[in-house]
Structure formats: C-alpha cells, structure tokens
Design goal:
Elements (H helix, E strand, L loop, with lengths): L16 H10 L2 E9 L5 E4 L4 E4 L16 H4 L5 E11 L5 E6 H11 L9 E10 L2 E5 L5 E5 L20 E10 L2 E5 L7 H5 L7 E10 L2 E7 L2 E5 L10 E10 L4 E10 L21 E3 L10 E3 L4
Parallel strand pairs: 3-5, 13-15
Antiparallel strand pairs: 1-2, 1-4, 2-3, 4-5, 6-7, 6-9, 7-8, 9-10, 11-12, 11-14, 12-13, 14-15, 16-17
Length: about 300
C-alpha cells in the first residue's frame, strides 16, 4: 500500500516539542501550513506549538541544481507542505524554532515510491495548477507530474479547467516513466464507449456541454468519455450547457445522434461536472475504448512491464 500522499492528505504534525523530537528519531514525515516565504525564499511553517523554517535549499528537490524554480516555493504560502524535522535552533529574536526539510521528504518519496512506479499503474494525485497544454498534479510529497490535455478524456476540451478544479483529488494512470519524470493519463479510467453509452436510452432528454461546432454539426459531451453529434442550431457556442434529445444510439459506428432542445445561460464559470471512474486501482496493460467491430480504433497501450 502506498504511504506517500499528495501534500495536504497526510495530515500529521507533532503536537508538542516532545513529539517533534520523536519525529527526528523516527524520521517520520509531517505536514503543516506554510505561512511565509521570506525574501531569501525560506519557508516559515506554523507547527502550532512553534514555528519551523525550511531553508531555500531544503525547499524542494532540484532547487540548488536549478531544475526547480523558486516559484515552486513561493506558491506554497498558505498551503500545506510536507517535511522532515532535522533539529532545532533559535531565530533572530531568540525564539526556538524547528529546522525542517521538504527536500528530504521528497527524496524518500522518490526512492521508495515514485521510482518503483511502472507504466499502467493507477495512482492517486491532486491537481495543483493548470496550463493550456495540461494539468499539473502532485503525485506524492509535492512532486509534480503532468497530464497532457489530450490524455484527460476522450471528449476533447479546450482547457484542463473544463474537467478539473485546483485542489481536486483524482485518479491517474502512469503513461510513461523517464528517469525521475512521470507522465500520466486519465481518460482510460473513465470508461469505454459502451460503458458510457449504457447510461443513456433513445428518447431521453438529458443535459450536455457543447465542446465543438463544426460545419456538419455540434458535438455535445454527455459524459467525459462520450459525445454525440447534434444538428446545427443558431445561437449555440462552445461551452454552452444544453438539453438534448437522444434521437439514435448506433454502437457499431460509435455514434449518438442528438437534437438540441434548449440552451442554458450561466453568469459565472460553473464547476466542471463530476465524473465516474470505471477503474480505480491496480494496473492496466492496455485499454480499448472502441466498440468491437467498429471502423474507428481508439486504444492505449502501456510500456512493457
């Protein structure tokens, strides 16, 4: 069982100085909230019974080498950080403070967990930030990994925020490993075409999200791994929430024909719809989205184990 979690999920912190000394002896990893990033990029952590300091060089793997930028430290303010307690000292006011190392916690996680991951392994992750090209996630002790936007779901999206929210806990599958770098995928966990289509019936009217508008029709997402094609209709835009009538479901062609009934306006960006995982643990060697016999083949193969 994995004992290394994304930051904010461990929820362990010594309650007093005596327990902190036990953490030093045992080498256990603790967590607490970072309250300040100093001008020298040291992190000040609130342990409750005293403050702790993570020197810049101990803030993350790669800081001294220049492979990790200082923004990785600055962005931790008001967020939970993990660390090892390495000792005690006094600050400039004479107050006793704990010496902490986030780097050591990350190194342990890297050696004991991340380096042992193999392609196809299903893991826990937490969304930390998003760019146009993909979602960055914490896969353990603040160590980042990327889910490229085209691997988030079969139904195409314009930005990862169409699918995720910052701080969300998700499942992911290891797509490939390259030394210490892990790339993840997500779509394989969201079900095949048939698994998703089984949630709908001809004649139903359901809610969907417009994902693209083409000259021949409008693609409406019914689930993250399932979209149908609706007839063109004026005043519809990408991102609109619509109600659609299901006109036909054609498994052999992997097609769902829709008619847009109504459009719903929202004043602010809504939280992305929830999704269901069809696989939540273990490992997968390959995954086939397509229906057997369909001319369109969508599948994933993972690295040989």
């Amino acid at each position: 069982m994995n004992s290394y979690f994304p930051e904010g999920e461990l929820r362990k912190c010594p309650a007093d100085i005596e327990e902190a000394e036990e953490y030093i002896i045992s080498g256990a990893t603790a967590e607490a909230v970072c309250i300040i990033c100093t001008g020298e990029h040291d992190l000040i952590v609130d342990l409750g019974f005293m403050k702790g300091r993570i020197k810049r060089s101990e803030g993350a793997i790669g800081i001294d080498e220049g492979t990790t930028r200082d923004i990785a430290l600055i962005s931790r303010v008001n967020k939970t950080v993990c660390f090892k307690i390495t000792g005690f000292t006094t600050d400039e006011t004479g107050s006793r403070i704990a010496l902490l190392s986030r780097r050591l916690a990350q190194l342990e996680c890297l050696e004991n967990y991340i380096k042992k991951l193999r392609c196809g392994d299903i893991i826990d992750a937490k969304v930390t930030h998003m760019e146009q090209f993909g979602a960055f996630v914490d896969i353990g002790c603040g160590i980042p990994s990327l889910i490229p936007i085209d691997l988030i779901s079969v139904s195409r999206i314009s930005h990862p925020s169409d699918r995720f929210t910052i701080g969300e806990n998700i499942k992911a599958v290891v797509k490939c490993t390259d030394e210490n770098k892990i790339t993840l995928s997500h779509k394989e966990l969201l079900g095949t075409w048939l698994e998703n289509a089984e949630n709908f019936s001809i004649g139903e009217t359901v809610t969907g999200i417009v994902r693209s508008i083409e000259s021949y029709g409008i693609f409406v997402e019914l689930r993250p791994n399932l979209a149908g094609l609706a007839e063109l209709k004026p005043d519809i835009s990408v991102g609109s929430t619509v109600s659609v009538y299901i006109k036909a479901i054609i498994p052999e062609k992997m097609k769902i024909k829709l008619i847009i009934v109504d459009k719903f306006e929202s004043q602010a960006k809504e939280k992305p719809p929830a999704f269901d995982y069809y696989i939540t643990s273990g490992s997968i060697e390959s995954w086939k989205y397509s229906v057997e016999g369909s001319d369109k083949l969508i599948m994933s193969d993972f690295c040989p184990r």
